[in-house]
């Protein structure tokens, strides 16, 4: 009776099953990210993730089935973190500015050894090597990023900016593709111990290119001849 | 005596050890490419490559030590093939035109199911997952491609074109990075069975961007603040 009185206005001590599940999932995804940052994508084992998160391996299997499931969840979390930090920081900033911040955010991350950008790039590449389900998860996320870029472009278009292409999906795909390409090149050189890619120079070029694509000179009508697929 | 007379002006039937080695290497690299196109990068085994090439597995180990050695040799061969077909087709074409042909050649290749571009992209990604020696091999190749793009840019500069950056290494790295990024996106969507990336739209955007970077409006002096590495 005493106990009940003192805790009545507080949160019940005993959490619902759903709350516990969410807590375990959060801990497991964070643990998976931590393990992959330290040991690489190939170094991920369910046993180690369970141990870092302080749960049983059986629970990991129950929640994510296998390594791929956990990797996809980690990828989704990394993307959400980026979007939260950079994509929606200031929803009133012009579209091109929001794209710039998103790209710069990813690049600045590359300066740090435990970079999420680096792990994100490696997990994306995994799509080429794992099964179709994994690639579908990656493609769905790519689609979400493309959608974000597309909305920024639409906003610029509605402000009367001349975009380099009337096909906004293609333009958005193009923009996110080079960001990914530059990050991949950066990461390869890093693994190789080769001369690092000059991030500041890349960012300056990205800014120039964005400006050229979003409010550059009126696009020429010149198009390469259509090819058969 | 008769035999000697008839073969005297021909190539000797008995090849030197070096010739035989070159023939085996050629057969093995082609076999490795064939096996990886059919079964993916992870599906490569020395035993199967030896069998396809018609040599002993011992010889494969003798020549390439392991899978990584064979994969690096395959990557170098794919790059050489691209360069031979597209990079140096017409050494008298303007630099921007040679870059365009190189990029278009890679993209056209993506239309075919057994595309070398696709395998090349997958092998590049491997650099993030294998050991440093592999990444070093990939970085060295990236460097050779960058050098090709850089020479094209230098030629344009000598013709009085205004380049988007005076740092030609950075500009070359930027150009090759987005080509790689677009190819990776294309390949991921393909594995996922997602809506394909519109290659023609990408090529049109690449052409526009190349034009903007190589002879666009005079670059603005605006540069982002230098960041500490």
TrEMBL record, chains A, B:
GO molecular function: DNA-binding transcription factor activity; transcription cis-regulatory region binding
Keywords attached to this entry: DNA-binding, Repressor, Transcription, Transcription regulation
All residue ranges annotated as the HTH tetR-type domain in the record: 22-82
Annotated spans, Disordered: 1-22
KW Flavoprotein (keyword) present: no
InterPro entries named among the record's database cross-references: BetI_C, Homeodomain-like_sf, HTH-type_TetR-like_transc_reg, HTH_TetR, Tet_transcr_reg_TetR-rel_C_sf
One Pfam family per UniProt: TetR_C_6
DNA-binding region: 45-64
Presence of keyword Chaperone: no
Name the UniProt record assigns to this protein: HTH tetR-type domain-containing protein
Taxonomy of the source species: Bacteria, Pseudomonadati, Pseudomonadota, Betaproteobacteria, Burkholderiales
């Amino acid at each position: 009776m005493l106990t009940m009185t003192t805790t009545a206005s507080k949160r019940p001590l005993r959490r619902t099953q759903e709350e516990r599940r969410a807590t375990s999932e959060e801990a497991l995804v964070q643990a998976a990210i931590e393990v992959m940052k330290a040991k690489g994508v190939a170094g991920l084992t369910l046993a180690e993730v369970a141990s870092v998160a302080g749960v049983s391996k059986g629970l990991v299997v129950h929640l994510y089935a296998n390594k791929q499931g956990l990797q996809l969840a980690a990828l989704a979390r990394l993307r959400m973190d980026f979007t939260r930090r950079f994509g929606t920081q200031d929803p009133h900033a012009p579209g091109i500015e929001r794209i710039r911040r998103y790209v710069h955010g990813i690049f600045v991350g590359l300066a740090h050894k435990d970079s999420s950008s680096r792990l994100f790039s490696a997990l994306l590449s995994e799509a080429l090597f794992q099964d179709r389900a994994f690639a579908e998860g990656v493609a769905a996320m790519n689609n979400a990023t493309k959608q974000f870029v597309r909305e920024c472009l639409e906003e610029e278009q509605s402000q009367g900016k001349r975009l380099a292409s009337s096909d906004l999906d293609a333009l958005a795909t193009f923009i996110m593709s080079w960001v990914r390409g530059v990050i991949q090149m950066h990461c390869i050189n890093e693994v190789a111990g080769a001369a690092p890619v000059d991030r500041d120079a890349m960012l300056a070029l990205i800014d120039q290119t964005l400006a050229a694509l979003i409010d550059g000179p009126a696009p020429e009508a010149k198009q390469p001849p259509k090819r058969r697929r």
